Amino acid sequence: MEVFRKLVSLILLFVTAVALAVTVVDDSGRVVEITSAPERVVSLSPAATRFLVFLGLEDKIVGVTDYDSYEAERVGAMVPANIEKVVSLNPDLVLMFGGFQLPEVPKLEEAGLKVLVVNPNSLNDIIRDVVLLGTIFDRRDLALEKSEKLREKMLEIGKKTYNVPPSKRPKVLYLISSPGPDVKDIWTCGMGSYLNEIISLAGGVNIASGIAGPNGWPQLSLEYVVSQNPDVIIVGVYISGTENEEIKKILNFEPFKEINAVKNKRVFAVDGNVASQPSPDVFELLDLFYEFFYGGKGE
């Protein structure tokens, strides 16, 4: 009888393992086979780490890059990947970003590692990747529940701004960081970026909405910015407590002196680490941007 019970237990374990096996297509178009829910993950992308935290999978993270705010074993730079260090952590899965990290994928695979690329460019892509990762980690029900809440947030903001005519919407400039004294061009969010989508949903008009760039991040000349005369400027800030300092840099930036946003002191700061990493956390910006556009004044 004891032998029979052990046999049944082994069969159940086998059936469970098979049931968890999934084949997915990642954001680079690669087919990835996951034979069981990963228990040890190295995240080579801070954005990917945010997805794991969002899904309550922190206990699976065994390694992150030096650029990650999450506390775990450091594996070095995002590029080039420290293959030896990653291998030493014996991960079941390595999560990566697309774009400049893609050449690292075959190197990691040659070392025998399972790699998944998470590279969302839109809010719907982010929602899709929540479900993708939830499926891979056997948290599909939770992922579906959380993804539905993200979709509801989009609808909630969209309903607030849907009937605002273009003439009543503020023109918006997003700055990845405040410009230095000798800068000639600035980086911003443009066509095809999730931040462009957030600005639009929150009721603004991105002055770079028709301009393409790498992964949706183009450069603009100062002359172009001045010609567009944005009503609101939002700047990414990466060190907590320096928000007012960064805002003042823009208010005192000579080329922007005659821009409406500066003259009316409608310059606002957001956490650049959140804004620059496509993850579920960027949905927090929908309410924040709406408040910038239709709420109080800046500093």
Structure notes:
The chain is α/β, with parallel strands linked by helices and 299 residues long. It is built from twelve helices and twelve strands. It has a four-stranded parallel β-sheet, sandwiched between helices. Helix 5 runs antiparallel to helix 6 (140-161). The longest helix has 22 residues, at 140-161. The model is unreliable at 1-18 (pLDDT under 50).
Summarize the structure.
This is Periplasmic binding protein. InterPro entries: ABC_Transporter_SBP, ABC_transptr_periplasmic_BD. By secondary structure, the chain is an alpha/beta fold.
Low-confidence stretches: 1-18
The shape is globular
Radius of gyration in whole Å, from Cα? 22 Å
> What class would the helix/strand composition place it in?
alpha/beta
- CATH classification class of the largest domain: Alpha Beta
By CATH's scheme, which homologous superfamily of the largest domain applies?
A: Nitrogenase molybdenum iron protein domain
- Strand line-up across the major sheet: 4-3-5-6
CATH topology of the largest domain, by name, is Rossmann fold
Largest sheet: 4 strands, parallel
Number of helices: 12
User: What is the H/E order?
Assistant: HEEEHEHEHEHHEEHEEHEHHEHH
